[in-house]
Design brief:
binds inosinic acid, Maf protein, 7-stranded mixed beta sheet, 7 strands, globular, 6 helices, 33% helix, single chain, alpha/beta
């Protein structure tokens, strides 16, 4: 079965393909000729995921899913949350989507706190056969005081999932997918699609 994943991120596409397996042909935005920047202007993860999926359905007429992820840090009242990708940029401290600047800002903000609890939360919105569905995946963990590892992307070098002594950037893709926020949300999506 062919389905569009509304992303241009090759890393995410590979992660999701690995989880959904051979049964699904997951194509990205580039594969359907969508080169425009899809608006993400909602103030919740759910809102942004739905906005992206609806855009693809409206403009390309294809069933599709889209995701949005936020890092929710307890001591920061749930920030950066829906602003995770542009955390440093919105604070005037870095280029758009710069993981380096984002992690630098996060580590600085947390310097004065002992509580370093955080969680990644992913919401996937699916538009399928005329209906809308939401799937959520959560990965609890802590923010380290410095960066470790070389794998992954984004905040992986500073996020250590609960119950592990290594951060995401020190795990293989398989290890991370099995416990990650996006992995969990994608498992729920896969179960739904396989049963429908
Ligand atoms: P997006 O909604 O998936 O684009 O995620 C928003 C931002 O969260 C990204 O720009 C990354 O900085 C961060 N992020 C999302 N997923 C991960 C992950 O698995 N590891 C580390 N950072 C992530």
């Amino acid at each position: 079965m062919k389905i569009v994943f509304a992303t241009n991120n090759a890393h995410k596409l590979a992660e999701v393909r690995q989880i959904l397996g051979q049964q699904f042909q997951v194509v990205g935005l580039a594969d359907i000729g969508c080169t425009e920047d899809i608006p993400e202007t909602a103030d919740t993860l759910e809102g942004n995921a739905l906005q992206k999926a609806r855009y693809v359905k409206e403009h390309y007429g294809l069933d599709c899913f889209a995701d949005d992820t936020g890092l929710e840090v307890e001591a920061l009242g749930g920030a950066p949350g829906v602003h995770t990708a542009r955390y440093a940029e919105l604070a005037g401290e870095g280029d758009s989507h710069s993981s380096d600047a984002n992690m630098r800002l996060l580590l600085r903000k947390l310097e004065k706190y002992n509580n370093r609890n955080a969680r990644f939360r992913t919401v996937i919105a699916l538009l399928y056969q005329g209906e809308e569905y939401l799937f959520e995946g959560i990965c609890e963990g802590t923010i380290l005081t410095e960066r470790h590892g070389t794998e992954g992307f984004g905040y992986d070098p500073v996020f250590q999932p609960k119950g592990y002594d290594r951060c995401f950037a020190q795990m293989t893709a398989d290890e991370k997918n099995a416990i990650s926020h996006r992995g969990r949300a994608t498992q729920k999506l896969a179960e739904f699609l396989k049963n429908s």
